[in-house]
Amino acid sequence: MNSSSSRKGGIGRHLAATAFSFLGAAALVAPLAPAAHAADVTTIKVLNWEPGGAEYWKQLVAAFEKANPDIKVELETVPFDRYPEVQGPYIATKSGPDVMENNAGLELYDRRSAYAELPADVLEAGKELITYSGGCLNFDTSKSCYGLPFGYQGNVMYYNKKVLAEAGLDPANPPKTWDEMDAACAKIKSVGKTCLALGLSGIFPAYWDFPEVARNYLTEDDMRAMLTGDMPWTDPKMVNILKGLASITQKGWANASAPSITMLPDGADLFQSGNAAFAGTIISDAVNWAAFDKALGAENVGAMRWPTLVADAPLAGSFSGIESSVFGVSSWSDKKDAAFRFVKFMAGPENAELLTKVAGGISLYKNVDPSALPNSPALSQILEIIKKPTLHAGVILSGQEADALARGWQEVTLGQLSIEDWTARMQKALEQSPSKRKK
Amino acid sequence: MAAAQQLDQARPRARPQTERRMKRRELWLALAFIVPGIALAVLFKLVPLIRGFHLSLLETQGFEEPSFAGLENYRTMLDDPVFIGSFRNAAVAFATLPIWVLLPLVLAVLIFQRSPGWKFFRATFFLPYMIAPIVVGIMFRQILAPDGPLNALLRAIGLAPLAIAWLNGPNSALLSLTAVALWSFFGLGVLTYLSGLATISEDIIEAARLDGAGFWSLLLRIVMPLLKPVIGYWTVLCTSGILIWMFPLIYALTKGGPGNATTLPEYLVFTTTFQFMNRGLGAAIGMALFVFVAIVSAFVVRRMYAEGKAS
């Protein structure tokens, strides 16, 4: 009995001694461990769709955390076409991320109660950008601003020079008008390729296709009227836009799967696989010249304005440009100071360089060194195209309108809906849009 | 003697006291079992339901302050052809219920009978149920594409006329969606029926076989009557599966399209609430869906109960 308790006492002492030595060692090492700083580090959650790609975001977060060692960034990345459905519940419950991304324009305005107004020092950073009005109410920087952009965005049509040559077309002279496009598509289809890679599911048609047809019928004043809900869909100009969109699929330019696939990734995949001659996407972020250069070879990729329907339309030769997405701070965040520092960093020079070098994007920061841009024929063409910008009609559509546009186009393509009924649906969507409806 | 008398006098008083104590204990025990269940049901079912109904009476367009709207959301809902269409789609999907109920039963009986390869099929049939519905949706978006593997196979074996654009047609898209859901779900049915079949005495089956019963006769005359409660249970599960568990598949496979051909009420609740930020109207559609599912489920459960009692 005694010996046993003595043994137990011995083991207990041994354990205590071991524990103390571990504690002693831990105490010595503790000042070196990062855990000691954990209490001083603020972690902010950033909801985003990863514009520019994973590598760019990895480097962006690393650069920000290096410049702000007291802030840690936690990313919640959601695919672009599913973003509204993920962000919606956060807004409805007023909880979740500290920093959020939205498209500039109406998408942001519709959600403005979910954002904190930008303080003066953050707005100052915006003044270093070519423009930041898309983050402010009604594109007016004298009104409340809710987010800052970082890149320039807009639509172009990419083409695969190899496919054009295969179809007997001149890759140096891609089609410039609707009729030329129709003739080109006939030749491309005859060699067994898809003419225009297209996906009509989700919100892509509203952002990537609609503005390019709209430029043929609308003026900038018309677009401003759209923004305030003063341009009915029954207006002949708007009906003509719907007819123009319908003609793309009715003329057989697009792939048969268009009504049931999304442009990203499915439509873009079709173009990247080399099986389609054209794809209407965007200049930077998700599916840009850099991605296509990588997939098809820079020498095979070209970029052009969408062919025109009305050659003498005032905006027919313009570029539908917009600040790319904007980042703002959620109204419910209790880490606003850290969150605003991230927003400011996004709009700053360090990110501008990263965007250009890593993501192949086009920064809005005024003083980016042009020599930092990669050598790409498509990029050179884009830099020419963006010199004549106009408003982007896509970001002026409400969520209801964007949804009705895509679903209606699907049904029109399949011969299940007339243009008249599509127009009526668009008008109804306009009347149900919170920021546009007339009370 | 006196003590015995005292004991006799005390006895009639002690018995009711003990009984009362016993009853009180039983009551407390019963409450201990019931109250947590009731509390959970109230907290997680009744309260959200009441809140949902309250929300359906509010106008909550966008981010404006909600205001009382009475039955306006219900009026808007009934005037909306998309809402009517979504319930029509739900009815079409629901019409496939007999396949959902019978297909797993036939397969379960084949496995139960130790048909060739039964072990392999028992494992294989359950596999689709193990794949997350969102992954199933993404998978079948590729498989059912106009130039996808399914159509390539049909063309290769000389069935080119059957190689249609599965997800493009208004009817084919809805039926494709339902078929994919069935593919994903039926393994659980096979397993459920196999559990039920394990309770049927081998002697009964053997006796039926000796009497010359073939597969169908065995299925219809012996197995189905004996498995009525299990069939009823599975039918209720399938009913809810078709009406309120299709969301991940719709989301990944069709997004409710083309047009609104595959928009079911649950998907409409989601888009109205979270995409269009109209929570009041979304709640009204949710209440309509609740009533619809409750009526259908009550009918099925009632049938099941009646059949169970009769058997």
Provide a concise account of the structure shown.
The complex is a heterodimer of chains A (439) and B (311). By secondary structure, chain A is of the alpha/beta class. In chain A, 44% of the residues lie in helices and 13% in strands.
Percent strand of chain A: 5-15%
Number of helices of chain A: 17
The ordered H/E elements of chain B are HEEHHHHHHHHHHHHH
Task: Give the radius of gyration of chain B.
Answer: 27 Å
Number of strands of chain A: 11
* CATH superfamily placement of the largest domain in chain A: Periplasmic binding protein-like II
Largest sheet of chain A: 6 strands, mixed
The domain count of chain A comes to 2
Instruction: Please summarize the sheet with the most strands of chain B.
Output: 2 strands, antiparallel
How many structural domains does the protein architecture of chain B include? 2
Topology of chain A as a string of helices (H) and strands (E)? HEHEHEHHEEHHEHHHHEHEEEHHHEHH
Low-confidence stretches of chain A: 1-36
Q: Which CATH architecture of the largest domain in chain A would you pick?
A: 3-Layer(aba) Sandwich
Q: CATH superfamily assignment of the largest domain in chain B?
A: MetI-like
Please state the overall shape of chain A, judged from the principal axes of the Cα atoms.
Answer: globular
**Residue windows where pLDDT falls under 50 for at least 5 positions of chain B:** none
The SS-based structural class of chain B is mainly alpha
